Amino acid sequence: MAVPSTTMSISTTSIPNAEEWIDRYLHRPVASVVVSMLVRTSVTPNQVTLSAALVGLFGGMLIGLATPMSILCGGAMLWCAVILDCVDGQLARARGGGTLVGRVLDGLADLVIASAGHVGLLVAAYAGAIRFCGEPTTGWTPFLWMVAAGVSMIVHANLVDYHKGRLLRLSGITSGATHARSEAESAHQNANGWFEKRLLAFYVNYCAFQETLAHSSSQATTKSYSLTADQLRLVREQLLGPTRAWTWLGPSTRMAVLILCIWAAPLASAGIEFYVGMGAIFANIFGIFVWIWITRANAKLAEQGII
C-alpha cells in the first residue's frame, strides 16, 4: 500500500454512486416519504426492521395460498417489506446514525424476506397454481433450481456488499457501510447480553465468509488507505465500473425480479422458469464476467502499489 506525503480529502459525495439503481430511483425515494412520517415518532429503526421481516413472512404465506389474488397480494407485501427494509437505515441516519447491531438485524431481515419469497413461490407452484416449463410442477427439478437461484442470490449479495465496502475504504471514506471483520470482533468482545453477543458472533463469521468469497483476508479488508488525487482517480477508473456491474446482481435487484415473476405467475403460469433462468444461469454467467473484470482491475492497482 502506498502512503504518499500528499493526500486528498474525500467526502462521501466525492465518489460516484455505486448503489443499486432500483434502490436509488425507486425504493429510497418511497422510503424517504415513510421516514418523514416516522422521524418525529417513538418508532425505532430496529422496530421497523422487525416489521419488515414480519411483513415479508406474511407475504410469503399469502403467495403459498396459491390463489391468483393471494399471489398478487403476497407479491405486494414482499415489495412493502423491501421498502420497510430501506426505511430502517434511513430512519437511523436521520436520527444521527445507526449501530452495528442494527445493521446486522437489517441483514437478517433481508434474508427472511428473500427466503419467504422463494418458499412462497415454490409452495404455490407445487400446489398447482404455477407451471414449470409448461408442465405441472412436480418432482425435485423445480425445487433444486429454486435452491440454486436462492444460493446464487446469497453469494452475489455478499460479493456486492464486499466490493462496495472495499471501494469506500480505498477511497478513504469512513461510514457504517465499511464495518469489517476487525470492528465486528471488537464489538463482539464488548457486547452486552447473550443475544447481542450471538448476533455479533454471527456477523464476524459473515465477514469471514465475505473474505473467503473474495479471496481476501482480514488484514486486506480492514486496511485504511490514504491516496493521492492521481491514485484515487486510478482507483475510480479501475474499480468503479466493475463495482457498479456487481450491483446489478445485488439483493434489491434480485428481489425486484422475484416479485415481478410472482406477479406474472397467475397470468402466465410461468413464474419459476424465468426466475431460475435469471437467478441460477444468467446471473452466474454475468457474475463470472464481472469477477474477471475486477480481478484484472485489482492486478493493475497492485502493479501501481496501491493495494
Describe what this molecule looks like in 3D.
The chain is mostly helical. The protein is globular, with a radius of gyration of 21 Å. It has a two-stranded antiparallel ribbon with strand order 1-2. It contains 11 helices and 2 strands. The protein has a single domain (21-303), classed as CDP-alcohol phosphotransferase transmembrane (TM) domain (Four Helix Bundle (Hemerythrin (Met), subunit A)).
SSE blueprint and pairings:
Elements: H1 21-38, H2 45-64, H3 68-94, H4 100-126, E1 131-132, E2 135-136, H5 141-170, H6 181-189, H7 194-213, H8 218-222, H9 229-247, H10 251-268, H11 271-303
Antiparallel strand pairs: 1-2
Helix pairs in contact: 1-3, 2-3, 2-4, 3-4, 3-10, 4-5, 4-7, 4-10, 5-7, 5-9, 5-11, 6-7, 9-11, 10-11
Which descriptors apply to this entry?
single chain, 307 residues, mainly alpha, Four Helix Bundle (Hemerythrin (Met), subunit A), two-stranded antiparallel ribbon, 1% strand, disordered N terminus
Task: Note the overall shape.
Answer: globular
CATH class: Mainly Alpha
What sequence of helices (H) and strands (E) makes up the elements?
A: HHHHEEHHHHHHH
Distance between the termini: 5 Å
Q: How much helix, percentage-wise, in residues? A: over 70%
Which CATH architecture is right? Up-down Bundle
Determine the number of helices (DSSP H or I, runs of at least 4 residues): 11
Which superfamily, in CATH terms, is the homologous superfamily?
Answer: CDP-alcohol phosphotransferase transmembrane (TM) domain
Number of DSSP strand runs:
2
Largest sheet: 2 strands, antiparallel
Mean pLDDT: 81
Residues in β-strands, percent: under 5%
Low-pLDDT residue intervals, each spanning 5 or more residues? 1-15, 174-179, 217-222
CATH fold topology: Four Helix Bundle (Hemerythrin (Met), subunit A)
How many domains? 1
Structural class computed from helices and strand pairing: mainly alpha
- Main sheet: which strands, in order across? 1-2
The rounded Rg comes to 21 Å
